[in-house]
């Protein structure tokens, strides 16, 4: 499974949205296949071939969007006119552009958050939901990521982070990313990325980043800081309450019990808000989308969606 080839590329579209942003939209798989939308995480990360794993190229027409300021969309790292509502409107425009009536919507972490917000806004277009390592975007979820309780689970990485940046960490890192000199931006991006690696993959001493790899993290985390500082624009109503508007379509939740980035309590709260959903637990996997058990569970869920179509 980890070495599975990428899906064949069908088309690449460039879609102008608003006055500044141009989205990179790609289609993969079968031209007449069942449509599926894949939403990347972050916010800010951009698409990866990993997120298309598990889709049968003979059955699915997979649509991938680099969200505003992310991946191959331009301008990279731009937070102007970049909110959750803007992203939802972008998804609507993509669906109309491609002539799609309904589609399976799949996403992990922030991608799961955006999938739910989109499903609540355009329920008639959603045929099913496949959500991995769901992030609820509540203030408690955001604070916990940079909190002492989480730090106690990864003490070396936590000490390195707190020695370099003052509390509240999110504000300090955001200030450096948006207003610092280039070395200050890179230092903040490295510190944030290293903390993610510690929580997500258990790697407390990751290798250093440099050059384009580090520049990508600066742009990615500018977008992420922008969203987290604004609670992802999901406070009125919060995501669990918003789930009342999500259609009661086939829904699968995949979550690892040892996920420190999006802890298991969030999956339980989401399941309570979506009682019709099937919640599948993985005993191990952290927040790693490439973990073999997560890849296998995702592929199995997609196979069931394909049979049910």
Unreliable sequence segments: none
Secondary-structure-based class equals alpha/beta
Q: Helix fraction?
A: 40-55%
CATH class of the largest domain: Alpha Beta
**Element string (H = helix, E = strand):** EEEEHEHEHHHHHHHEHEH
How much strand? 15-25%
Roughly how many Å apart are the termini?
23 Å
Give the second-level CATH assignment, the architecture of the largest domain: 3-Layer(aba) Sandwich
Contiguous helical run count: 11
Q: Roughly what is the average pLDDT, rounded to an integer?
A: 95
The tally of domains stands at 2
Task: Give the gist of this structure.
The chain is an alpha/beta fold and about 300 residues long. It has helices spanning about 85-100, 110-120, 140-145, 150, 155-165, 170-180, 180-200, 210-230, 240, 265-275, 290-309, and strands at about 10-15, 20-30, 35-40, 60-65, 105-110, 125-130, 250-255, 280.
Can you lay out the helices and strands and say which pair or pack?
Blueprint: E1 9-17, E2 21-29, E3 34-39, E4 60-66, H1 84-98, E5 103-108, H2 110-121, E6 126-132, H3 139-145, H4 148-151, H5 155-164, H6 169-179, H7 182-201, H8 211-229, H9 239-242, E7 251-256, H10 264-273, E8 278-282, H11 292-308
Parallel strand pairs: 3-4, 3-5, 5-6, 6-7, 7-8
Antiparallel strand pairs: 1-2, 2-4
Helix pairs in contact: 1-2, 5-7, 6-7, 6-8, 7-8
């Amino acid at each position: 499974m980890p070495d599975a080839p990428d899906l064949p590329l069908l088309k690449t579209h460039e879609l102008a949205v608003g006055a500044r942003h141009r989205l990179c939209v790609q289609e993969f798989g079968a031209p007449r296949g069942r449509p599926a939308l894949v939403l990347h995480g972050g916010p800010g990360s951009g698409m990866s071939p990993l997120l298309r794993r598990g889709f049968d190229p003979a059955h699915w027409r997979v649509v991938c969007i680099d969200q505003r300021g992310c991946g191959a969309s331009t301008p990279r790292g731009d937070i102007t006119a970049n909110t959750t509502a803007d992203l939802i409107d972008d998804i609507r425009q993509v669906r109309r552009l491609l002539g799609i009536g309904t589609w399976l919507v799949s996403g992990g972490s922030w991608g799961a958050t955006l999938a739910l917000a989109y499903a609540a806004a355009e329920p008639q277009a959603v045929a099913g939901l496949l959500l991995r390592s769901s992030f609820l975007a509540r203030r408690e979820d955001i604070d916990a990521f940079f909190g002492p309780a989480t730090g106690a689970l990864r003490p070396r990485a936590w000490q390195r982070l707190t020695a370099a940046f003052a509390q509240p960490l999110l504000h300090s890192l955001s200030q450096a990313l948006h207003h610092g000199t280039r070395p200050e931006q890179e230092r903040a991006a490295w510190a944030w990325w290293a903390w993610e690696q510690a929580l997500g993959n258990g790697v407390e001493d990751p290798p250093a980043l440099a050059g384009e790899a580090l520049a990508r993290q600066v742009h990615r985390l500018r977008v992420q800081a922008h969203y987290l500082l604004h609670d992802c624009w999901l406070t009125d109503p919060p995501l669990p309450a918003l789930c009342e508007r999500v259609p009661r379509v086939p829904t699968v939740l995949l979550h690892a019990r040892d996920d420190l980035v999006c802890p298991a309590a969030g999956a339980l709260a989401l399941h309570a808000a979506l009682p019709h959903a099937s919640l599948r637990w993985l005993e191990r996997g952290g927040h790693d989308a490439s973990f073999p058990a997560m890849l296998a569970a995702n592929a199995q869920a997609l196979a069931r969606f394909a049979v049910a179509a």
